[in-house]
Design brief:
The structure is a single chain. By secondary structure, the protein is an all-alpha fold. It contains ten helices and no strands. Helix 3 runs antiparallel to helix 4 and helix 4 runs antiparallel to helix 8.
Length: about 220
């Protein structure tokens, strides 16, 4: 595997960083490809520091493509299926008008599906782009470092994958609790959380039927 990757980089020559950057754009168009895998391969092929520097450019281009596709194509279709008033109520109730909430989502999920979903909201694309870059940057650094230090031979890679599987099982158990804690933390620090709380209280008060009368 590493020999094949080395031959690819040698054959690509000076175009190797360009291919690496364009791989992030490919993950934006095909969100099922994990971005950390691209960063890890870049760390193995280019080294950690170049992979991080070129990865910043790749992440920026990928987020730009995802957000604009969702905003220019996906949002008009969604507003035709659902009225703008109902869509605005959903955004307020779900808290997707908060950059802080989206930052938590970007950090926890770290997939281009989340970035594309954010483009459907009414938030400014520039702010969403900056939020996505800040939240996903730590994953880029860790993945590039992992690729540079771990992906050096098939034996080391196999041992690392076994450790990752074990760690993934543990994280899978803890992830719902951590996600719940982060979302609650974001809601407490979100200025619009009080408005969402009022919407929820009105919704709950309407479930109990009409007002009771005293005799």
């Amino acid at each position: 595997m590493t020999d094949a990757l080395a031959h690819f980089i040698n054959d690509a020559g000076w175009l190797a960083p360009l291919y690496y950057v364009l791989s992030f754009v490919m993950t934006a168009l095909l969100p099922f490809i994990p971005t950390p895998l691209v960063a890890a391969l870049g760390g193995a092929a280019l080294g950690a520091v170049p992979a991080i520097l070129y990865g910043i450019l790749g992440l920026g281009l990928g987020a730009f493509v995802s957000l604009n596709l969702a905003r220019r194509l996906g949002r008009p279709i969604a507003l035709k299926l659902v009225t703008p008033a109902i869509w605005a109520e959903w955004e307020s109730l779900l808290g997707v008008r908060s950059l802080l909430v989206w930052g938590v989502i970007f950090f926890i999920l770290n997939v281009d599906f989340a970035v594309m979903a954010a483009g459907l909201s009414s938030l400014r694309l520039r702010r969403l782009w900056v939020t996505a870059m800040i939240a996903r940057f730590p994953w880029l650094v860790v993945s590039a470092w992992f690729g540079d230090l771990i992906v050096v031979s098939d034996t080391v890679m196999l041992l690392a994958l076994v450790g990752l599987v074990a760690g993934g099982v543990v994280l899978g158990k803890l992830r719902p609790r951590v996600r719940h804690w982060l979302v609650r933390w974001a809601e407490r620090h979100d200025p619009s959380s009080s408005a969402r709380a009022r919407v929820r209280r009105r919704s709950r008060s309407g479930e109990g039927g009409g007002p009771s009368t005293r005799t």
